[in-house]
């Protein structure tokens, strides 16, 4: 088992997974774009989820994953970036599937998180994680069926390492190291990267935003999906974490950033 994990960590399978995911989305891009303009954000999320590797049938490392229902450690240790489409889908799920009281509770948490994040220094943002405002009182994800791509595509091999990392974050120390399924993460980043390029090519906002602030913007924008497709800047108040295009940049660029561990793996291979 350890040898297979080490092989995955080395990046070979991860690189192939990333490139295959980009190619897969490109192949299905016409249907994705049709749904983009004719369907709803939740429909598009379902389609994109189908382009991610099936954790039961396509991943050799699936049996080694330690992620289980009830574990929310990564919800407190990982800063999640999302496309506008994912943020709108999450907000629509909140509005459609939660009670009015729950919606207001979620909105209140997101507003408080946005205020706290805006007050953080650059150094604090490196060591302090504020958690996800979309967790319920029981620690379960309140938008699980509509959760962002990265939330569905990142898996840990070691639950104890996750819990230790969460404890370090709670103490406002540096994040602990968690062994993850890098091939699954790379494939997910490939899907996300291809989606970003598709949005930019359509003249839409294809930037990445911090999850909590982006969902808050979408939740506060009635008819967010239609307004987004009409190219209204509804995410002006959200924290942009990676700018690709309008309205955060004057001139768009559509490059897909590869995961850092793929670059490191290539350097190790070249030294051999």
Folded structure, characterized:
This protein has 272 residues and is an all-alpha fold. It has one domain. The protein has helices spanning 2-10, 12-38, 41-51, 74-77, 84-97, 100-118, 122-127, 149-153, 159-170, 182-201, 211-219, 224-229, 260-271, and strands at residues 81-82, 208-210, 240-242. The longest helix has 27 residues, at 12-38. GO terms for molecular function: methyltransferase activity. Residues 255-272 have a biased composition (Basic residues).
Provide the descriptors you would attach to this structure in a database record.
272 residues, mainly alpha, globular, methyltransferase activity, cell projection, cilium, methyltransferase
SSE blueprint and pairings:
Elements: H1 2-10, H2 12-38, H3 41-51, H4 74-77, E1 81-82, H5 84-97, H6 100-118, H7 122-127, H8 149-153, H9 159-170, H10 182-201, E2 208-210, H11 211-219, H12 224-229, E3 240-242, H13 260-271
InterPro entries: Puta_zinc/iron-chelating_dom
Biased composition (Basic residues): 255-272
Keywords: Cell projection, Cilium, Flagellum, Methyltransferase, Transferase
């Amino acid at each position: 088992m350890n040898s297979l994990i080490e092989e995955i960590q080395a990046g070979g399978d991860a690189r192939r997974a990333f490139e295959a995911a980009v190619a897969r989305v490109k192949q299905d891009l016409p249907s994705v774009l049709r749904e983009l303009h004719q369907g709803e954000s939740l429909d598009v999320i379902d389609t994109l989820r189908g382009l991610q590797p099936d954790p039961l049938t396509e991943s050799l490392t699936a049996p080694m994953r330690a992620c289980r229902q009830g574990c929310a450690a990564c919800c407190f240790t990982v800063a999640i970036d999302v496309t506008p489409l994912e943020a709108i889908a999450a907000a629509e799920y909140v509005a459609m599937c939660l009670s009015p009281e729950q919606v207001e509770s979620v909105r209140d948490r997101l507003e408080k998180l946005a205020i706290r994040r805006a007050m953080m220094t650059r150094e604090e943002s490196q060591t302090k994680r504020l958690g996800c405002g979309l967790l319920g009182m029981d620690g379960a994800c309140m938008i699980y069926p509509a959760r962002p791509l990265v939330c569905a595509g990142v898996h840990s091999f070691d639950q104890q390492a996750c819990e230790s990392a969460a404890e370090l974050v709670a103490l406002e120390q540096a994040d602990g190291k968690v062994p993850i399924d890098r091939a699954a993460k790379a494939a997910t980043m490939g899907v996300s990267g291809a989606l970003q390029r598709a949005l930019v090519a359509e003249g839409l906002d294809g930037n990445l935003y911090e999850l909590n602030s982006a969902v808050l913007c979408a939740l506060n924008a009635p008819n967010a999906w239609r307004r987004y497709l009409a190219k209204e800047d509804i995410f002006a108040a959200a924290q942009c974490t990676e700018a690709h295009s309008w309205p955060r940049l004057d001139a768009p660029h559509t490059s897909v950033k590869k995961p850092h561990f793929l670059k490191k793996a290539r350097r190790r291979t070249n030294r051999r």
